[in-house]
Structures are given as C-alpha cells and as structure tokens.
Task: inverse folding
C-alpha cells in the first residue's frame, strides 16, 4: 500500500492524508456545482452475493417501505435547500438507481423519480441497475413507462463454471433475452466480471459476444477485486495472466469496431453512454450514497436502520465528510476523468481556473513519453498500455482506500474518523 501513499503525496504535493471526519453540513451547497449528476442507492437484494462489496441487505417488505419513506424525505430536505418559486430547478446531467437490486422496489421507483423532478431537471436520461431475474417484459415495461431510458444488467458471466464460482445461476437468461427484444431502451448495458479464476480469452470473448448478440449495446467488464470484508473464496488471478487477458480482449474490441468509453466499458458505435461515476459533481441519496461537491466529499451511513433513524430526526444521514484541499480535489478529478481514458486540459482549466500543464505538466509529459497516453486534438487519450497501468494502480487505490473505508462503515453507522493515505 506504500505505492498508493507515495502517489498521493506526489500528486497532492503534500504529506496531508485524506481525513474523513464526522462533521457535516446541515445543507448542501450544490446550486452552483457544474456537471451535477444524481445517484439513488437501493440496498435490498433477494440474497447476498459473496463477491459483492456494495452496501446491501436481504429484502424485507416492512423495512423497504420505511426506507422509501426516509429516502423521499432526504430528497425533499436536500431539494428544499435551494428551491423556491423564484428559482428555476437545478439542471443535472443524469439520475442513476444502483444497489442492491433496485427493481425489488419497482412499485416505488416512479414516486422517487417524481419527487426528484420537483427540484431537478434531468438532461441525459435515467438509468437503473437490474438483476437478471428482474429483466422481464412486465418490469421493463413499467420502468420504461416511468421514464427509465438506460438499464444496466449485472450478468457477471454467461459461463456455468464462472457462475458457480460466483454463486449465481443462469436460469433467467432465456426470459431476459426475450424481454429485451420486446422492450427496447436507449442503452442496454451488461456488466461482466473480468479475471475470474480459470477465465480465458475464449470464455470472456464468448460472454462479450453473447451480450452483444442478445440486446446489449454497451458492455462493462469490471475486474474481480478480493475485498477483505467479502466472503468470497475465490483467489485473484495473477497479474501477468490478467494483463495478457486484458490486452487480448482490448484488441478484440478494437478489431470489431467497438468504442472504448472508459477503462472498463465498450459500446457499439452510436450507443448511449452509461456511467454513474464520471460526473464533475454529484448528489447521492440513500444509505452508503456519496456526494461530491467542489470542496468536499461526503458519505451517508451504511446502516439502513441508522439511515432511517437519522432522517426521522430531520437530519441528513451523513456519516463522514472529507474537506478537500485544492490539490486533493484536483487529484480526485483527474483520477475519475482518466477513468474515461481522456483528459481535456480545457475542461480542467474550466473547473479549477488554472492550467493543467502548470500543475501536472511533468506527469503528462512522462505519460506520453512512456507510451501511457498520446495527445490528439489537444486532448490526452490513454493507450492500451496506459489503461492497464491505470487498472494496476486502481487496485492499490481500491485496497488502500475503499476497502478500508467500507470495512469500517459496514461495522459502524457513524464512525468518528477515518484517515486514509
């Protein structure tokens, strides 16, 4: 983990770590935040997958109803902070529902959207994550009728061997394929897991082909990461094998005319984008949801019970807040902008009112000299080699930062402080 700390020190030009404290603002100053997206977390699942690190609990009808009531109150609290008859609704890029399995609350999703639309105008559509079991013609029709335009299906794999390792089953796929033909969406993304033990180029290629042949116009291939707090018994794939697999799959996408939209996502030409992460700023609603603003990053409590209780007291459910230095905010911006495989110096200058090369000229010079990026029409574009090294260091970031934070927050609803780096 020393590599992650050294990189943080170098890039922030400071020994100061990221300090998450239990103080928080009673209101959120988002009115002037540019490129604002919205995220809603639905934590309920039919059962708990051993490999999944996200905040989730087994669905119980009574608790789910109480959670929705609290969620609506949180949206109203945040919306009312900056809304009155004389002020126009805040324009936002997008709205995403994640989980968990959000479709378990399909009867409430429309009400949640209506409440959000009282305060926000959504310009790029509404997306939702789906479990394969929820991809039925009936559910898809309901979602489309309430304004959902993008869906992301957590396939993980179509291969029986891989599904067995993941504790998943493929009996839903035939009905899912039929439903997708009946009810079209602007974006149909299918999530696959990359670097499952025993996975080969042939099996991963078969998964990709199956996805695109059965309704997907967007595929996300996320790496298997061995989080310390999950109960998975799978052993991570070796780095040499992982890189060879990643290079082969990237070449396959390129040879077949697919467009790389981020480190892990590839689309058919002309397909709509699907991403809940690559926003300049965002507001998060629900337990474990995060909010990113120009000067701070906050995380809601991971506890469903504590979330409901805090809202009942008319307080925001913030568990921890980090107040960025300007350099820390720049590093955060660059990390997630680089995730798209493109960094635009003009956009950096617009956001921070300073030159990218004045701050990080040496780093971008080295990136191009080492073949990690190339400059095209004034924009730095990541090469395949750069994408691999991004992935390599992202693992250090994930295990040094996210693993530590989520491990603590899964046990403590409102920890006092977490120091990272």
Result:
């Amino acid at each position: 983990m020393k590599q992650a700390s050294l990189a943080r020190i170098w890039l922030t030009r400071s020994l100061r770590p990221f300090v998450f404290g239990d103080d928080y603002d009673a209101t959120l100053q988002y009115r002037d935040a540019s490129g604002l997206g919205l995220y809603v977390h639905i934590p309920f699942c039919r059962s708990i997958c051993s490999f999944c690190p996200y905040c989730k609990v087994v669905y119980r009808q009574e608790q789910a109803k109480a959670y929705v009531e609290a969620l609506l109150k949180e949206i109203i609290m945040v919306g009312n902070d900056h809304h009155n008859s004389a002020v126009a609704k805040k324009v936002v890029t997008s709205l995403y529902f994640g989980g968990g399995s959000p479709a378990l609350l399909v009867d409430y999703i429309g009400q949640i959207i209506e409440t959000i639309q009282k305060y926000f105008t959504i310009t790029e559509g509404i997306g939702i994550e789906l479990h394969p079991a929820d991809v039925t013609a009936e559910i898809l029709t309901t979602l489309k009728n309430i304004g959902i335009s993008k869906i992301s299906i957590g396939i993980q794999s179509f291969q029986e061997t891989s599904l067995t390792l993941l504790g998943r089953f493929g009996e839903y796929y035939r009905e899912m394929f039929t439903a997708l033909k009946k009810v079209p969406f602007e974006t149909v993304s299918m999530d696959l897991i990359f670097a499952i033990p025993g996975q080969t180029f042939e099996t991963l290629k078969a998964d990709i082909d199956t996805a695109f042949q059965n309704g997907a116009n967007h595929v996300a291939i996320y790496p298997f990461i061995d989080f310390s707090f999950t109960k998975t018994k799978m052993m991570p794939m070796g780095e040499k094998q992982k890189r060879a697999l990643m290079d082969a799959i990237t070449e396959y996408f390129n040879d077949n005319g697919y467009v790389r939209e981020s480190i892990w996502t590839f689309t058919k030409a002309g397909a709509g984008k699907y991403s809940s992460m690559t926003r300049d700023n965002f507001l998060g609603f629900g337990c474990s949801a995060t909010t990113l603003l120009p000067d701070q990053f906050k995380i809601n409590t991971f506890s469903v019970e504590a979330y409901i209780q805090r809202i009942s007291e008319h307080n925001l459910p913030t568990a921890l807040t980090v107040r960025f230095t300007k350099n820390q905010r720049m590093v955060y911006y660059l990390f997630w902008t680089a995730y798209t495989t493109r960094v635009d110096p003009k956009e950096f200058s617009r956001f921070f009112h300073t030159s990218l090369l004045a701050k990080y000229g040496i780093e971008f010079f080295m990136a191009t000299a080492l073949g990690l990026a190339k400059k095209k029409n004034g924009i730095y574009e990541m090469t395949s080699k750069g994408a691999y090294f991004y992935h390599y260091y992202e693992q250090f970031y994930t295990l040094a930062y996210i693993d530590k934070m989520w491990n603590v927050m899964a046990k403590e609803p409102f920890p006092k402080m977490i120091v990272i780096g």
About this structure: The radius of gyration is 21 Å.
